[in-house]
């Protein structure tokens, strides 16, 4: 198999070891004469997968006994609705830090349920940064503070959890989930679509703090949209094959050394690329240095024509999916956990040559 260097923002590259194992499980799971995709989600085999994935997440994130984990459908986008549906009442306020496209989509949904206060927005500067703690203007009594830990489109990332005076965080961690350790005790909810760092698209991981869950509003919330429904048991048919693959990725993350390992690995990869960008002004980083993401590096070239040429020539070197998000243009290199260092090195060498020929 000749795998290309895949910089897709999502669905993104998966570890080749995991793909190989999943191919076996797809054909026949543990000599059972059936694929894992052909088994009941009430079977002992699937229940073991579900439990193992949850205990691996608990260990990787240091969750202890304080959290419940769910594997849901509907994407991170459905969490934009489900979180406020469960936790924000008409007469209440939730604070939403506005750092870009995905925060905005979350804000739009939350407004359907209650008041939304923006303690910070970088919209005036084209979402080129995330706030420092002293810039947060929190409301008096928010039920939670929502933030997007990594902004996939702009290429910014919170260096650590925002300070909220004890108010629980609700976090869209879709594009940096399991890329580095977090302080779990700060969160009420962490949610992430799997398709960047933990598996194929189709399953959404939702982690909720038990004491936060106790505050959930169940009145007039449809059964399937209540978090309680999914924390008590497997309510309806889960995306079983996807959870199986997520579990394989979680095992792979553990084998490699867990989140501390990936923090270092991801910082090293991003460092290589940002050093190349910063060498002179041929490439220009699209966001402020202190806010740069180690997952999605965004940058510009001197003209849109050169950017187009860059993308075309990159593919000739097996460097794929480097085009920036359609709403902002430019170049975006996504370097999630499974992106090998060699891919970033190949990209950096290509960028060096491209500059020498066109600078
Ligand atoms: N949030 C972030 C930060 C994302 O990057 C994305 C998708 O790229 C989403 C939410 C939407 O996720 P989904 O397509 O799973 O609804």
From TrEMBL:
Sequence positions that bind pyridoxal 5'-phosphate: 76-77, 102, 152, 172, 195, 236-237
GO CC terms of this entry: cytoplasm
Example GO BP: L-serine biosynthetic process
Chief location bin: cytoplasm
EC number: 2.6.1.52
GO molecular function term, any single one: O-phospho-L-serine:2-oxoglutarate aminotransferase activity
Family to which the UniProt record says this protein belongs: Belongs to the class-V pyridoxal-phosphate-dependent aminotransferase family. SerC subfamily.
Protein name, UniProt field: Phosphoserine aminotransferase
Organism (species): Fodinibius roseus
């Amino acid at each position: 198999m000749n795998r290309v260097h895949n910089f897709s923002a999502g669905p993104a590259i998966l570890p080749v070891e995991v793909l190989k194992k999943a191919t076996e499980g797809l054909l026949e799971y543990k000599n059972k004469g059936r694929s894992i995709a052909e088994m009941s989600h009430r079977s002992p085999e699937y229940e073991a997968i579900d439990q193992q994935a949850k205990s691996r997440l608990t260990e990787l994130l240091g969750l202890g006994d304080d959290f419940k984990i769910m594997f849901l459908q509907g994407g991170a986008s459905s969490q934009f609705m489900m979180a406020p549906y469960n936790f924000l009442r008409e007469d209440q306020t939730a604070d939403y830090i506005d750092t870009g496209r995905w925060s905005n989509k979350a804000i739009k949904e939350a407004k359907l349920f209650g008041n939304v206060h923006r303690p910070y927005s970088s919209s005036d500067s084209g979402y080129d940064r995330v706030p420092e703690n002293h810039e947060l203007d929190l409301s008096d009594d928010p039920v939670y503070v929502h933030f997007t830990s990594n902004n996939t489109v702009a290429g910014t990332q919170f260096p650590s959890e925002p300070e909220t005076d004890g108010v629980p965080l609700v976090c869209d961690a879709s594009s940096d989930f399991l890329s580095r350790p977090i302080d779990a005790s700060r969160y009420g909810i962490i949610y992430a679509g799997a398709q960047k760092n933990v598996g194929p698209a189709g399953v959404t991981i939702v982690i909720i703090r038990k004491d936060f869950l106790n505050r959930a509003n169940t009145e007039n919330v449809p059964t399937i949209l209540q978090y309680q429904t999914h924390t008590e048991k497997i309510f309806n048919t889960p995306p079983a094959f996807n959870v199986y693959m997520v579990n394989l990725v979680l095992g792979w993350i553990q084998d490699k050394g867990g989140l501390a390992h990936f923090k270092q690995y991801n910082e090293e990869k991003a460092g290589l690329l940002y050093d190349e960008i910063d060498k002179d002004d041929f490439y220009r980083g699209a966001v402020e240095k202190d806010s740069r993401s180690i997952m999605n590096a965004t940058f510009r070239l001197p003209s849109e024509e050169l950017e187009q040429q860059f993308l075309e020539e990159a593919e000739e070197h097996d460097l794929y999916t480097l085009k920036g998000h359609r709403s902002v243009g430019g170049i975006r290199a996504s370097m999630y956990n499974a992106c090998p260092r060699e891919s970033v090195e190949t990209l950096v060498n290509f960028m060096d040559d491209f500059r020498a020929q066109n600078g």
